[in-house]
Amino acid sequence: MKLVSRFEAASRNTAELHGLLKQAFNAFAAAPRGSEQRRDALASMRNIENELSSRQPGF
User: What is the pTM of this model?
Assistant: First the structure.
């Protein structure tokens, strides 16, 4: 999985971010320990979660 940057996460809607978060989680779980893919997936999850937490909850 390619790294999802903070900028890219900010440009996505909430539903897309939840889908990307699932993809990043699965990529993290499947990647070998210590690999670049695992680091990218973890960084992507952090960026996506930070963006989701910065948004106002929808009513």
Answer: 0.91
